[in-house]
Amino acid sequence: QVQLVESGGGLVQAGGSLRLSCAASRSIFSFNRMGWYRQAPGKQRELVAVFTSAGTTTYADSVKGRFTISRDNAKNTVILQMNSLRPEDTAVYYCNARDSYIWWGQGTQVTVSS
Asked: Does residue 104 sit in helix, strand or coil?
């Protein structure tokens, strides 16, 4: 069993920044992929940013240049730095990790006011 614990969501004005953290219960190098998804009301869950075990990073087009995914290996933590936030970034953000299973965190709400 893997636990993914997210933190750092909240309410921010448009143009502001937030930093999300996802702490995994084991080494992040044990996963094939790890990163962040989000789901806005009435919409499907979508990829925001992920690392792969091959060392590549993928971002959704809508967040490129504004969001940065990074990791703290010693703390088994993946971080999403979100800058220049927009109202359309409002969603529940979920940490995701994959090995032979797909693991999800409980989600953290991000609300961007206009």
From this structure: strand
Asked if residue 2 has pLDDT above 90, the reply is: yes
**Torsions phi, psi for 16 (to 5 deg):** -85, -175
Tokens of 51: 């690392």
CB 75: neighbour CB atoms within 10 A? 12
Nearest alpha carbon to residue 35 among 84, 81, 86, 87? 81
Strands 108-113 and 10-13, by their bridges, are: parallel
State how far the alpha carbon of 22 is from the alpha carbons of 34, 43, 96, 112, 114, in Å: 10, 23, 9, 20, 27
- Distance CA(64)–CA(46), nearest Å, equals 14
Q: Reading across the β-sheet that carries 67-72, which strands appear in turn?
A: 4-7, 18-24, 77-82, 67-72
CA atoms within 13 A on the CB side of 112: 18
pLDDT tens track for 65-76: 999 999 999 999
List all residues 6 or more positions away from 44 whose beta carbon is below 8 Å from its beta carbon. Answer: none
